[in-house]
């Protein structure tokens, strides 16, 4: 293999740049040229690409976002659009593609594999919702961003004895909300993987009040409902007044944590090795500290499993 390409797709995640850097540098070690595709699948179809030299990925390991830009490009579900992407890559002499993204991006990659073009997926999304890997690039950074935000909200919540609802991203997954809830000591965590019961939330708040807790912080994952909706339910069902803080896209930004940088570096290098070894339609992941590869379809056909033991712990520790 003499020439490969790399792109970033879907929601950006801190650490994507570190993964791009690792791909380019590992490829250099193996004497392989790397083409960077701009704007994810859209750029692939429109032929927006450039050669990435070792120096082009200098000083990006510490930066959030993605140097290659990203896009959501629904047209990529169309077979003829995918054919165009493959034609562009073949014309440019590209023999394999590394896709850095989430479950949606993996579907696109698998379609290319089915059409005979080798692809490897690197999981990068703050949602941590890619089945088959315990962690995705960006999750740890986003988690620390949420923890920092909740810590700050706690300062004002305690000072004014207010009850706060913090709405956290994650699409249909509750990992970000759950891990942040444990790490920031939230009074309650509401995630899509556990049936929602307004009475339970109210009981939790009342129990806190009974033991003298005059403020509270409830973390709700966006996949369950919005913070505003939860505020309305608490008001209507128990007359409880809350303030709502929607953290929004700040959760996707910032300099990646050490953990995300290391993971991204390992994933990037491993993906290049996998392509060179002739693998195709494989997803890279981490399981019990070991970097592994597995069937790409497993990453979007299976359900993402959150850590329910951690949920139990969260409820136990926030009595
Ligand atoms: N079923 C699909 N078939 C082909 N391409 C897809 C499919 N789903 C998503 N994609 C491509 O992957 C891109 C990113 O997917 P998205 O779900 O938005 O983000 P993520 O990859 O982070 O989960 C989409 O904009 C689209 O170009
Ligand atoms: O910025 P957008 O396009 O509104 O997307 C918001 C979504 O993107 C995310 O930040 C990341 O999701 P993906 O990794 O699937 O792209 C989700 O947490 C959130 O629901
Ligand atoms: Mg996704």
Helix-strand layout with pairing:
Elements: E1 3-8, H1 16-29, E2 33-37, H2 40-46, E3 49-52, H3 79-91, E4 96-101, H4 103-114, E5 119-123, H5 139-160, E6 163-168, H6 175-183, E7 188-190, H7 198-210, E8 216-221, H8 227-238, E9 243-246, H9 258-276, E10 282-287, E11 290-295, H10 298-301, H11 308-317
Parallel strand pairs: 1-2, 1-4, 4-5, 5-10, 6-8, 6-9, 7-8
Antiparallel strand pairs: 2-3, 10-11
Bound molecules: adenosine-5'-diphosphate, 1,6-di-O-phosphono-beta-D-fructofuranose and magnesium ion.
GO biological process, one term: fructose 1,6-bisphosphate metabolic process
Organism: Lysinibacillus alkalisoli
Domain Phosphofructokinase: 3-275
**Average pLDDT reading:** 97
Q: Remind me, CATH topology of the largest domain?
A: Rossmann fold
Residue share in β-strands: 15-25%
The small molecules bound here are: adenosine-5'-diphosphate, 1,6-di-O-phosphono-beta-D-fructofuranose, magnesium ion
Description:
The chain folds into 2 domains: about 5-140 and about 255-300, Rossmann fold, CATH 3.40.50; about 140-255, Phosphofructokinase domain (Rossmann fold), CATH 3.40.50.460. About 40% of the residues lie in helices and about 20% in strands. The protein contains 11 helices and 11 strands. It has helices at about 15-30, 40-45, 80-90, 105-115, 140-160, 175-185, 200-210, 225-240, 260-275, 300, 310-315, and strands spanning about 5-10, 35, 50, 95-100, 120-125, 165-170, 190, 215-220, 245, 280-285, 290-295. The strands form 2 sheets. A 7-stranded mixed β-sheet has the order 3-2-1-4-5-10-11, sandwiched between helices. Strands 7-8-6-9 form a 4-stranded parallel β-sheet, sandwiched between helices. The longest helix is centred in the middle third of the chain and has 22 residues, at about 140-160. Bound molecules: adenosine-5'-diphosphate (ADP), 1,6-di-O-phosphono-beta-D-fructofuranose (FBP) and magnesium ion. The site of magnesium ion has 8 residues, from helix 4. One of its GO terms (molecular function) is 6-phosphofructokinase activity. Catalyzes the phosphorylation of D-fructose 6-phosphate to fructose 1,6-bisphosphate by ATP, the first committing step of glycolysis.
């Amino acid at each position: 293999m003499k020439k490969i390409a790399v792109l970033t797709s879907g929601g950006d995640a801190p650490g994507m740049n570190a993964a791009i850097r690792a791909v380019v540098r590992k490829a250099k070690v193996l004497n392989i040229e790397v083409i960077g595709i701009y704007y994810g699948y859209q750029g692939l179809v429109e032929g927006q690409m450039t050669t990435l030299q070792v120096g082009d990925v200098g000083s990006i390991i510490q930066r959030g976002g993605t140097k290659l830009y990203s896009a959501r490009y629904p047209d990529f579900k169309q077979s003829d659009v995918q054919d165009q992407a493959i034609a562009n890559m073949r014309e440019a002499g590209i023999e394999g593609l590394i896709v850095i993204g989430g479950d949606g991006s993996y579907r696109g990659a698998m379609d290319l594999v089915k059409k005979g073009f080798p692809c490897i997926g690197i999981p990068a999304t703050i949602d941590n919702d890619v089945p088959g890997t315990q962690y995705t690039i960006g999750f740890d950074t986003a988690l620390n961003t949420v923890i920092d935000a909740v810590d700050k909200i706690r300062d004002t919540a305690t000072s004014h004895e207010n009850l706060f609802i913090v709405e956290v991203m994650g699409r249909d997954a509750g990992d970000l909300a759950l891990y942040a809830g444990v790490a920031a000591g939230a009074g309650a965590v509401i995630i899509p993987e556990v049936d929602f019961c307004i009475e339970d939330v109210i009981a939790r708040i009342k129990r806190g009040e009974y033991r003298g807790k005059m403020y509270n912080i409830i973390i709700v994952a966006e996949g369950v409902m919005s913070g505003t909706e939860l505020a309305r339910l608490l008001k209507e069902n128990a007359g409880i007044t809350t303030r709502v803080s929607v953290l929004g896209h700040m959760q996707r930004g910032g300099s990646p944590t050490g953990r995300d940088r290391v993971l991204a570096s390992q994933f990037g290098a491993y993906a290049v090795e996998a392509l060179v070894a002739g693998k195709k339609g494989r997803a890279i992941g981490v399981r019990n500290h070991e970097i592994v590869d597995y069937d790409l379809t497993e990453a979007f056909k299976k359900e993402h499993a959150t850590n329910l033991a951690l949920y139990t712990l969260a409820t136990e520790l926030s009595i």
